[in-house]
Amino acid sequence: MAAFSYRALDANGLQTSGTVESENARQARVQLRERGLFPTSIEAVERDEKRTGRVRLRSAELCLLTRQFSALLSSGLTVEQTLGALVEQADSPNIRAVLAAVRSDILAGHSLRSALDRFGYAFPPIYRASVAAGEKSGQLAMVMSQLAEYLERQDTLRRKTLQALLYPIIVAVVALLVVIGLMTYVVPQVIEVFQHSKQTLPLLTRALVFASAILRSYGWLMALMLALGIIAFRYALRDESIRYRWDAYLLAQPLLGKHLRALDTSRFASTLAILVSSGIPLLGALDAGRQVITRLPIRQAVAQAADRVREGTSLSTALRQTHAFPPLLAHMAASGEATGELSTMLSRCAQLQQNEVETRTATLTTVLEPLLLLFMGGTVLLIVLAVMQPIINMNTLVK
To answer: Which of 37, 96, 166, 322 has its CA 20 to 30 A from that of 360?
Structure first.
């Protein structure tokens, strides 16, 4: 089937537009008239498969889409009807194109999982694995509801983290701009007066003059070198061995390491919980959970744990032997295995780790804000002292 974009008038004479899938334009007009619409224009939608396959959905868009998918399935609509309704409701052309392509694959006889596999950029591995489990168990609506809750929790954590770090970032940027402005514009004009007096300037003032001259002469070169260094570093991280060493270094840091470990543990436990509750075998859930982990040493530890589970070791023991996760995860997994409520205990662990991340982020920003203000104030104080010292010396000589 092909997709057609249309403009039409409803029974009240109001203009409406959307997308409809049909064999041809004539059949599309028939479908619209059956809905009580009077088409004024119908155009075939040209699909760029390569471009559509690389479309990325924002986290908020994916959350809303999944919640709508769950609600429509729960109301009794089929997957095909649900996708058709979502295509008509979509405001973004990218979302509309992806959903229309998925619906076309469904109409061609493909499963929803295989249709989503073509859009790996838009739908993460946990999403596609959960959909496959929902299709096999016949509980797709329930699985989509769980997915929506999972995505909303992850989006909430991401937004809280960004909001907590926004103010310190703004303070740091403003402080940097103020210092650069003082060093490149204000300080040279003030110091020039003392240089013409041919008096010996204090050490702090001479250091300020030297730093100001360096910044004015080579500031653009320093900025360029910094940008090139960042680009080169990001390019180097594409090498798996370099990235592994860098991630290991970050995880070894006292405060930052605990934060990053808790963040990955929360993602991993949430993924395992939703997949296990959806009926995915534990080894398949571990493989999907490994893909949502950011740090390579932890990802490798999950692969080692999966190998031990494949050999017959319990999940809790396999996780404990990796020494890559907080002890809480292994203890909660052991409780879940003993009571038969593994998904519930993993979900609680994920929530506890998320709470820990939020608390640590709030504490970090609470400490960081006054430190940045003190740093900015101290830097400005040094500049003022460097400017004032020659004036004080001149007044002392006059007396």
So the answer is: 322
